[in-house]
């Protein structure tokens, strides 16, 4: 019932906004300017995307919990993938600067590139969302037969008692402020599920008020030692 309550709340918020703006546009007693109409339609479009995202997340979540997440592993070069995601994130913020630190010889990992992209995008999104400004860094380090990827920010940080809880589904450190920032508390639990399905681990380290680092490991592709 907890799950149902949260899910219906999450779905209702964008739904209410879509309904509200559609009703507003359909009013026959008011004439909206073209600019106003475009603003309302843009909100409807954004909220529809948000509904789609929540549904995708719920589907991923239920597949992970059933142990049925489909991953298609192949030897995957992280370099291009990291660069592409950082470049996309650069376009979305002016208050952050980015540091990418990859070793010159970065062996390929054995992973589903689409899923790894989803994980790194989620960590970069969070770094942006939970830090007002400052540096966002991403680095890769090779340790024997694993690559460790780290994403760090200089944001608000996470209280020590919540460092493991944030990976639980729907958990948000500050329900109110995080809700303003959007998100449904599913991103990290899905990300950890994806990494574990690859045989890797994911965890967080943080100093409150100074920033957070999220790390995960992925196995090297065969013959890449
Ligand atoms: P969402 O961002 O949708 O709330 P996530 O599962 O991605 O959900 O994150 C869960 C919670 O962990 C967030 O609500 C936030 O409280 C905390 N969190 C995640 N990333 C960071 C970060 N980089 N800095 C501080 N807190 C974070």
Give a short summary of the structure.
The chain has 6 helices and 7 strands.
Describe this entry's structure for a reader.
The protein is an alpha+beta fold and 225 residues long. 46% of the residues lie in helices and 20% in strands. The chain has 6 helices and 7 strands; from the N terminus they run H-H-E-H-E-E-H-E-E-H-H-E-E. The strands form 2 sheets. Strands 2-4-5-7-6 form a 5-stranded mixed β-sheet. A hairpin with a 3-residue loop joins strand 6 (202-207) and strand 7. The longest helix has 32 residues, at 34-65. The radius of gyration is 20 Å and the shape is globular. The protein starts with a helix and ends in a 6-residue tail after the last strand. Adenosine-5'-diphosphate binds at residues 122, 126-127, 130, 153, 155-156, 158, 166, 171-173, 178, 183-189, 212.
Strand numbers in spatial order across the main sheet: 2-4-5-7-6
What distance lies between the first and last C-alpha atoms, to the nearest angstrom? 48 Å
Percentage of residues in DSSP E strands: 15-25%
- Low-pLDDT residue intervals, each spanning 5 or more residues: none
Ligands, deduplicated: adenosine-5'-diphosphate
Q: What is the mean predicted local confidence, pLDDT?
A: 92
Order of helices and strands: HHEHEEHEEHHEE
């Amino acid at each position: 019932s907890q799950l149902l309550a949260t899910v219906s709340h999450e779905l209702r918020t964008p739904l209410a906004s879509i309904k509200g703006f559609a009703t507003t546009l359909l009013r026959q007693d008011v004439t909206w300017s073209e600019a106003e109409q475009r603003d309302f339609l843009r909100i409807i479009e954004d909220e529809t995307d948000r509904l789609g995202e929540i549904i995708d997340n719920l589907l991923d979540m239920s597949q992970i919990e059933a142990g049925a997440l489909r991953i298609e592993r192949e030897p995957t070069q992280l370099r291009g993938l990291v660069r592409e995601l950082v470049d996309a994130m650069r376009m979305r913020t002016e208050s952050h600067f980015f540091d990418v630190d990859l070793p010159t010889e970065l062996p390929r990992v054995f992973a589903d590139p689409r899923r790894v992209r989803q994980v790194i995008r989620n960590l970069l999104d969070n770094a942006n969302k939970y830090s007002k400004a400052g540096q966002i860094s991403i680095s890769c380090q090779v340790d024997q037969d694993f690559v460790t990827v780290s994403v760090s920010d200089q944001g608000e940080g996470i209280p020590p008692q919540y460092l493991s809880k944030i990976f639980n589904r729907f958990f948000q450190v500050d329900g109110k402020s995080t809700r303003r920032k959007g998100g449904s508390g599913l991103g990290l639990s899905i990300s950890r599920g994806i990494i574990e399905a690859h045989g890797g681990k994911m965890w967080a380290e943080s100093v409150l008020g100074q920033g957070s680092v999220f790390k995960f490991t992925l196995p090297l592709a065969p013959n890449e030692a």
